[in-house]
Specification:
The chain starts with a helix and ends with a helix. It has 3 domains: 141 residues, no CATH class; 207 residues, Glycogen Phosphorylase B (Rossmann fold), CATH 3.40.50.2000; 264 residues, 3-Layer(aba) Sandwich (Rossmann fold), CATH 3.40.50. Strands 1, 4, 7, 8, 9, 10, 11, 12, 16 and 17 form a 10-stranded mixed beta sheet that branches. A 6-stranded parallel beta sheet has the order 20-19-18-21-22-23, sandwiched between helices. A 3-stranded antiparallel beta sheet has the order 13-15-14. The chain is built from 31 helices and 23 strands. Helix 11 crosses helix 12. With 745 residues, the chain is an alpha/beta fold. Bound molecules: ligand 26Q. The site of ligand 26Q has 21 residues, from helix 5.
Length: 745
C-alpha cells in the first residue's frame, strides 16, 4: 500500500457538491487502488474457504484501518469540513445470517493479517439478509438491496467467468473479487449468477436460515452453483500448471468446507477429475480426501443438509451418479472394517432415499472439526459417534475466534488506547500481548470504568436516535444480541425480566441498581415461535418502559435491524453479556468472545465457548448458572415434566395467556405457552428447559446487579475478561487451522 499516494490523492479530491454516496464511492475506489498496489500471488500452497455466507459488515472503516490510513483520512476529511462518521449512513453488506457467516469474515481478516494465503469463495447475493422493521411489535422483513449505494470494494472479473451446468439449464458464474487487506492481500471471490431469468435467481437472495421445505430446490442450485464454480476454477488452474497430474493437487490446495452447505464440492471435484481429466474414480476420491476438510457448526438436526435423491437426480444427474458411487465405496470399506448394520447405517451418505451431506463430508474429508471443546466432544460422542469410533484421527477441535481488529481496535478505540498506555502497543501486532494487562488490573480499574462509561454514553445516544428510547447514563447494560432461536432462550430472559419487574413492583426486590436489557435479534421469516418471542419482548418493553413507578430502575430495548454495525456499538457499551443457551446446543457462540474482549462479564450457561471463557478469565469473574449437559441428558432420559416449574413461575408464564400482553389477536402467545406446557410440533413440552433454568438465571442476574455496587471490584472482573481474551482472537484460530489442517505454515 502506498499510503502517501493515497493521502495526496485524498487531499486533491474535490469534495464540494458531492453526496455522501458519491464521496463514499470515490474514496473507497481510491483506497482500493492503493491497497491493491502491493499484492502478489503465492507460489506454494493456498487454502480456500468455501462458505454460503460471509457476513462482512461495513467495509469502509475496516478497510481504511487495515490499510493504515483511517486517522489520516479522518483528518483530511475534517479539514474539508466532512465528519468521517457520515459514512455510517451507508449500510453494511449482510451476506450472512449470523455466527457462521461472521466467523467466515473474521477468518478472512485474520488470515490476511497474518500473511496466510486464504481465499474465500461464496455467492454474491443481490439481496442480503432481510432488513428488519418492527411494526406494532412484530418483525417485518424488507429486502436488503445493499448494492444500491454502489459496491466500490468489488472488482468484476469478466474474463474469469465460468459456465455451470444443470440438467435443465446453464448458468454463467461471474466472479466479483473483494480484496481482504492485511500483511498480504487475499481475495473473497463471490460468484454472481447470470443468464436467463431462472439463472439469475440463483444468486438473488440469501436463505434466512429457515428450516422449511419451501424453495429447497433453489438452495440446492445455489450450493452446487458456487461450489462448482470454485472447484472448476481450482482444478483448471492446477491442470494448466501440471497437465493432467492430480496426485499433487493437495500439495497446492486445501479446501475448507464451512458446514454442510458446500459439501457438493467434493462430488463436483470427483466428477470433474473422472469426466474431464480421465482420472480413475478411486484416485479422484483419494485426492479429494487429501484436499477437503469439514467444519461442523451445529448439532441441531434441522440445520444439517439432506437432499432427496430424486431432487439431485433431476437437476444434477452426474453428481447423483458420483454420490451413488461414493456410497458403494463406503459400503465396501465398512464391510472391510466389519461394521455392524447399525454402524453402517449411521455413517451412510445415502439413506431414506436421500443424501446426507454431513456423512459424505465425514467420510471423505481428512479432517472434521468442531468449533469449541464441548462441541467437538459432542460430535465425537453423539452426532458422529460411529465415525469417531472408526476414524478417530480425523477429529479435531478448533475453538472459534473473532478478529480483534474489528471487534476491539475499530469498535473500541478508547479501550485500545487504554491498553496501549498500560502495556504498550505490542498487542496490536501480536494479540497474546493482551495478557500483560493481568499485572496492572488494579491500577487501571478506574480508567477502565471511564472508558466503559464513555462507550455506554455513545451506545445510549445511538439507541436514542434509532429507537427513541432514552437511557440515563448510570444504567447497567445487560445485552442479548444474536439470531432469535428457541435454543438461545431469549424467552427465558424475557421471563426473568418480568419476574424482576414484578419484584420491583411488589417490593420483594430491594436495592436494585438501574438496569437496561438490550435485545437485538432477527428471526427466520417462517419461524413462527421465534417471531412470537420478538412480539412478546416488544410488548414487555412497551409496558415496562412506560411504568413510571419503575422506569427509573428498569428498561427494555429491542433494537431494530440488529446487524454487524449495531453489534460494534453494543459489544463496546455492554457490562453483562447474556449467553444463556440450553447446555449442549450452542456450538460455540462468537458474540460471547466479542463482549469478553470489550470487558463485559458473561452471564451464561456451561455451553459452547462460554466454558472456555470461564476457564480462562476465571469462573469467579463471570456468572455461570443453569443445568449442564449431563443434567440436561438426565432430565431428557427421565422424562422432564415442566408442570411444577410452570406453577413456580406462574405470573411470568401465564402473562402469555391471561391478557397481560396482547399478541394482536394472532394467537401466537398461546402457541408459545403451549410449547412450554404441552409441546409443539415435534417438540416436547419446554423442549429447551427455559423454565427449568429460570430461577437460577434470575438469581445470577440479581447477583450481578448487587455485585455491581462495588464499582472497583466489578471493573476488576471486567478487566480480567479483557486481559484473558487473546485466546479468542481468530488469529489464534486461523494459525491452528493453517498448521493442523491445511498444513500451510
Ligand atoms: C440450512 C438449511 C436450509 C437453509 C439454511 C440452513 C442454515 C443456514 C445457516 C443452517 C445453519 C446456518 C447457520 C448456522 C450457524 O450460524 N451456526 C453458528 O456457527 C457459529 C460459528 O461457528 C457458532 O459460534 C454458533 O454457535 C453456531 O450456532
Amino acid at each position: 500500500m502506498n499510503k502517501l499516494l493515497f493521502t495526496d490523492k485524498l487531499k486533491e479530491l474535490d469534495t464540494s457538491n458531492k453526496t455522501t454516496i458519491q464521496l463514499y464511492n470515490e474514496i473507497s475506489a481510491l483506497a482500493l487502488k492503493c491497497g491493491l498496489a502491493g499484492s502478489k500471488a503465492v507460489a506454494g500452497k493456498s487454502a480456500y474457504y468455501l462458505s454460503m455466507e460471509f457476513l462482512i459488515g461495513r467495509g469502509f472503516y475496516n478497510n481504511l484501518m487495515e490499510l493504515g490510513v483511517i486517522e489520516e483520512t479522518r483528518k483530511i476529511l475534517a479539514l474539508k469540513g466532512i465528519d468521517i462518521n457520515v459514512f455510517e449512513e451507508i449500510e453494511d453488506a449482510a451476506l450472512g445470517n449470523g455466527g457462521l457467516g461472521r466467523l467466515a469474515a473474521c477468518f478472512l481478516d485474520s488470515a490476511a493479517g497474518l500473511g496466510i494465503p486464504l481465499h474465500g469463495y461464496g455467492i454474491r447475493y443481490k439481496y442480503g439478509l432481510f432488513k428488519q422493521a418492527i411494526e406494532n411489535g412484530f418483525q417485518v422483513e424488507l429486502p436488503d438491496d445493499w448494492q444500491r449505494f454502489g459496491d466500490p470494494w468489488s472488482i468484476r472479473k469478466e474474463s474469469e467467468k465460468r459456465v455451470i451446468k444443470f440438467a435443465d439449464m446453464s448458468v454463467t458464474a461471474v466472479p466479483y473479487d473483494m480484496p481482504v487487506f492485511g500483511k498480504r492481500v487475499n481475495v473473497l471471490r463471490l460468484w454472481q449468477a447470470e443468464g436467463s431469468e431462472e439463472a439469475q435467481k440463483i444468486s438473488e437472495y440469501l436463505y434466512p436460515a429457515d428450516d422449511t421445505e419451501e424453495g429447497k430446490l433453489l438452495r440446492l442450485r445455489q450450493e452446487y452453483f458456487f461450489s462448482a464454480a470454485a472447484i472448476g476454477e481450482l482444478v483448471e488452474r492446477h491442470a494448466k500448471k501440471f497437465g493432467k497430474r492430480f496426485d499433487n493437487f493437495a500439495e497446492y490446495n486445501a479446501v475448507q468446507l464451512n458446514d454442510t452447505h458446500p459439501v457438493l464440492a467434493i462430488a463436483e471435484f470427483v466428477r470433474l477429475l473422472t469426466a474431464d481429466y480421465k482420472v480413475g474414480f478411486a484416485d479422484a476420491l483419494k485426492f479429494a480426501g487429501q484436499t477437503f476438510s469439514y467444519t461442523n457448526h451445529t448439532v441441531m438436526p434441522e440445520a444439517l443438509e439432506f437432499w432427496g435423491s430424486a431432487f439431485v437426480r433431476k437437476i444434477l444427474p452426474d453428481i447423483y451418479a458420483v454420490l451413488m458411487r461414493i456410497f458403494l465405496t463406503q459400503k465396501e470399506e465398512f464391510n472391510k472394517l466389519n461394521c455392524t448394520f447399525e454402524e453402517t447405517a449411521a455413517m451412510s451418505l445415502y439413506y431414506s432415499d436421500g443424501f446426507s451431506m454431513a456423512n459424505l463430508a465425514v467420510f471423505v474429508c481428512h479432517t472434521v472439526n468442531g468449533v469449541a471443546k464441548l462441541h467437538t466432544d459432542i460430535l465425537k460422542q453423539n452426532l458422529f459417534k460411529t465415525a469417531y469410533k472408526f476414524y478417530p484421527d480425523k477429529f479435531q477441535n478448533k475453538t472459534n475466534g473473532i478478529t480483534q481488529r474489528r471487534w476491539l481496535m475499530l469498535c473500541n478505540s478508547e479501550l485500545s488506547e487504554l491498553i496501549d498506555n498500560t502495556v504498550g502497543s505490542g498487542w496490536r501486532g501480536d494479540i497474546s500481548g493482551l495478557s500483560k494487562l493481568n499485572g496492572q488490573i488494579d491500577e487501571i480499574a478506574k480508567a477502565f470504568k471511564c472508558v466503559k462509561s464513555e462507550k455506554k454514553k455513545q451506545l445510549f445516544e445511538y439507541i436514542s436516535r434509532q429507537e427513541g428510547i432514552v437511557i440515563p447514563h448510570n444504567f447497567i447494560v445487560y445485552s442479548q444480541v444474536k439470531r432469535l432461536h428457541e435454543y438461545k432462550r431469549q424467552l427465558m430472559t424475557a421471563f426473568a425480566i418480568l419476574e424482576i419487574y414484578n419484584g420491583l413492583k411488589d417490593g420483594s426486590i430491594k436495592n436494585f441498581r438501574p438496569s437496561v436489557f438490550v435485545f437485538g435479534a432477527k428471526s427466520a421469516p417462517s419461524y413462527k415461535r421465534a417471531k412470537a418471542i420478538i412480539k412478546f419482548i416488544n410488548e414487555i418493553a412497551k409496558s415496562i418502559n412506560s411504568d413510571e413507578q419503575t422506569n427509573g430502575l428498569l428498561k427494555v430495548v429491542f433494537v431494530r435491524n440488529y446487524n454487524v454495525s449495531y453489534a460494534e456499538k453494543i459489544v463496546a457499551g455492554t457490562d453483562v453479556s447474556l449467553q444463556v443457551s440450553t447446555a449442549g446446543l450452542e456450538a460455540s457462540g462468537t458474540g460471547n468472545m466479542k463482549f469478553m474482549m470489550n470487558g463485559a462479564v458473561t452471564c451464561g450457561t456451561m455451553d459452547g465457548a462460554n466454558i472456555e471463557i470461564a476457564e480462562l478469565a476465571g469462573r469467579e469473574n463471570n456468572y455461570i448458572f443453569g443445568a449442564e449437559v449431563d443434567e440436561i441428558e438426565r432430565l431428557k432420559a427421565d422424562g422432564y415434566d415442566p408442570q411444577e416449574y410452570i406453577k413456580m413461575h406462574r405470573n411470568a408464564v401465564e402473562s402469555l395467556i391471561n391478557g397481560t400482553f396482547s399478541d394482536g389477536g394472532t394467537g401466537c402467545f398461546k402457541d408459545l405457552y403451549d410449547s412450554l406446557a404441552v409441546g409443539a410440533s415435534w417438540h416436547k413440552p419446554d423442549n429447551y428447559f427455559v423454565l427449568y433454568d429460570l430461577s437460577s438465571y434470575k438469581e445470577a442476574l440479581l447477583k450481578i446487579n448487587s455485585d455491581y455496587g462495588d464499582e472497583k471490584a466489578f471493573a476488576v472482573k471486567q478487566l480480567k475478561n479483557v486481559a484473558n481474551s487473546a485466546y479468542f482472537s481468530s488469529d489464534r484460530t486461523i494459525n491452528e487451522y493453517a498448521a493442523d489442517i491445511w498444513k500451510i505454515i
